Amino acid sequence: MTDAAPPARPEARSPRGFADRRGADVAAERRIVARVSEVYERWGFEPLETGAFEYADALGKFLPDADRPNEGVFALQDDDEQWMALRYDLTAPLARFAAQNWETLPKPYRRYAFGPVWRNEKPGPGRFREFVQCDADTVGSDRPEADAEIIAMACEGLRAAGLSDGQAVVRVSNRKLFDGLFDAGDVTDPVQRLTALRAIDKYDRLGWEGVAALLGEGRLDESGDYTKGARLPAAVTATIQAFLGSAGEGSRSQTLDAIARIGGLGAAGEAALTELSGIDRALASMGVDQAAVRFDPTIVRGLEYYTGAVFEAELLLDTTDDKGRAVRFGSIGGGGRYDDLVARFTGEATPATGFSFGVSRLASALRAAGRAEAARRGPVVVIVFGEADMQAYLDAVAELRRAGIAAELYLGRAGMKAQMKYADRRGAPAAILLGGDEIAAGQVTIKDLDAGRALASDLVDNEAWKAARPGQQTVPRGALVGTIRGIIEASSITDGAHE
To answer: Where is L-histidine bound in this sequence (predicted)?
Structure first.
């Protein structure tokens, strides 16, 4: 009789495009969300939370005519046979919420939101299937000042997130410019138009040669994948080339003048220029620098629902990967005007505009630029010498927590040396030692781990290090909290001096 084979063990692996993040990375994203949210609230936007799932027909954007609508989104069928999908952004849920609650909302309705979104797309470097966004939108205003306010607020949000002047730029254009160009060139097929816009959206990455191929028959990329082209008439492609060439480094008004000189924009294009002029005047009134916000006709944004002004925030910092190779992050946020999204539910035109920070992408970009903030301090660690004195250890950790100091009791079963190594790996500012002698004498020994690290780096001889006992002091038990607080404050001052 043979023994039964052991059950197969699953391989521990993460799904492609879904990243695990530890303390420092999680904290970095939370700081960006907190700081940007504070900007949104100061500008008069209220928070809103919507569910992770929306009905698939409410999302609309990525869904094909298929039995299982999961192209671009992660979808499942509920027990009532309705299809639901994880939200692919925070804007489509807002449109549904606004339509559902319009009668009770203040108008215009100004809201901000943050949270994870999911896209069923091919993952790649810096491109995830799950990531965090932080949005602000105004629903119910068609004024160019509403667009300008969103743009100016995005600039302030970028500074709050950790970028200085000159380290990012918000580029602005208007989708109606291309609507007018297509009208003038008799390009009426909506699919052909959208294919052309998505090609133009790749201009910064592919250059004119790559875009021209996508505007024509199509393009074979480096991986061997073939993308069908828009097959535009040659005259329209030539006009687009001149159009994209109007993007320069001049002022916003100079860029508008250059676009106007190209001509052939039709009524929609002329309306776009009028709207951009209004945005420029409002930005100037708010004191937004020309270098911080530029007009750039190459910006179109990939999502189909944009109807007018579009914005894209570009990182200008030099960034490198973990091997020191230069990488380009490009866009770290974007948005625009989507006047038809709420109307999908109500049938009534409802103007709306907004901006979204790619929080996960911005955090990765700051880290790649060497701009990641110093990791937060770990908790003070109370060392355990034996079971008999457990009450003393529990009392110490509870006293520290009551005083507002992060503290933990070591709950493994390792010895003293391993516990000290654990405290060091946790980034603890100090370790608390309450041995039998200390408890009997009403004292506590505290190892200032920061001071110990600094002194140890100057002592090459191990015996000298042991004799010096760097960073170690014994104080009365009643001085525990005050001594620890002094160590933490001193560490904060030292960290600040090296930022």
So the answer is: 89-91, 119, 133, 137, 301, 305-306
Which helix (H) or strand (E) element contains residue 84? strand 83-86
Peptide bond preceding 108 in cis form (omega within 30 of 0): yes
CATH 3.30.930.10: which residues of the chain? Answer: 23-368
Q: What are the φ/ψ torsions at residue 131 (nearest 5 degrees)?
A: -155, 170
pTM of the model: 0.81
pLDDT in tens, 141-159: 999 999 999 999 999 999 9
CA 246 to chain centre: 31
For CATH 3.40.50.800, list the domain ranges present in the chain.
380-497
DSSP per-residue letters across 16-75: TT-----HHHHHHHHHHHHHHHHHHHHTTPEE----SEEEHHHH-TT--SSSS--SBS-E
Q: Which is the CATH superfamily of the domain at 380-497? A: Anticodon-binding domain (3.40.50.800)
Q: Which range (81-90, 327-336, 378-387) has the least confidence?
A: 327-336
* Three-class SS state of 339: coil
Question: Residue 119: which residues within 8 A CB-CB, separation 6 or more?
Answer: 62, 72, 73, 88, 129
Containing 499, the helix (H) or strand (E) segment is none
Q: Which long-range contacts (CB under 8 A, 24 or more apart) does 390-398 make?
A: 392/434, 392/439, 393/434, 396/432, 396/434, 396/444, 396/480
**How far, CA to CA in Å, does 154 sit from each of 157, 424, 492?**
5, 39, 30
Class of domain 23-368: alpha beta
